[in-house]
Amino acid sequence: MISTLLYIVFVLSALVLIVVILLQEGKGGGFGQALGEHGQQTFGVGAKGINTFTGYTAAVFLVSALVLHRISGPADTGSIARDQMSIEDVLQAPTGTTPNAVPVPDGN
User: Fold this and answer.
1) Domain of 51?
2) Residue 23 CB partners (closer than 8 Å, separation 6+)
3) For the chain, which terminal residue's Cβ has fewer other Cβ atoms within 10 angstroms, N or C?
4) DSSP result, 1-19
5) Within-domain flag for 108
6) Per residue in 73-103, pLDDT tens?
7) Distant-in-sequence, close-in-space partners of 16: CB < 8 Å, separation ≥ 6
8) Distance (Å, rounded) from C-alpha 20 to C-alpha 49?
């Protein structure tokens, strides 16, 4: 139940974040300028307000992503190298040999 709600918040915040970032004025105009002055008035925010709203939306997106990762991610699985090989195996390996080495022809 809680993970479904978090996924909904995550996706909605991602979509809102995309739209809000595209509405911001950049050096070259952007999507916000394509809508003209009416575009910013439609969403009811000014230049300072849209920056604050973007920050809050980004924070919600980041927190929901971290919580979803913590909930759905596997527990500590350890290291692949640590699970497959111990330090004793490395120290006892014969020197001068390469495992799975392909022989090189002499050229004669």
Assistant:
1) 2-74
2) 30, 31, 32, 35, 39, 40, 43, 50
3) C
4) -HHHHHHHHHHHHHHHHHH
5) no
6) 766 666 555 556 666 666 666 666 555 666 6
7) 57
8) 11
Domain count, the chain: 1
The C-alpha atoms of residue 21 and residue 32 are separated, in whole angstroms, by 9
51 CB-near residues (< 8 Å, 6+ apart): 24
What is the rounded distance in angstroms from the CA atom of residue 76 to the CA atom of residue 54? 34
Tokens of 33: 């300028």
Does residue 94 fall inside a structural domain? no
**Distance, first Cα to last Cα, the chain:** 71
Give ∠ CA 95-99-100 in degrees, rounded to 5: 155
Q: Would you say 60 and 13 are in contact if contact means Cβ atoms under 8 Å apart?
A: yes
Residues 58-71 have pLDDT tens digits of 999 999 999 999 88
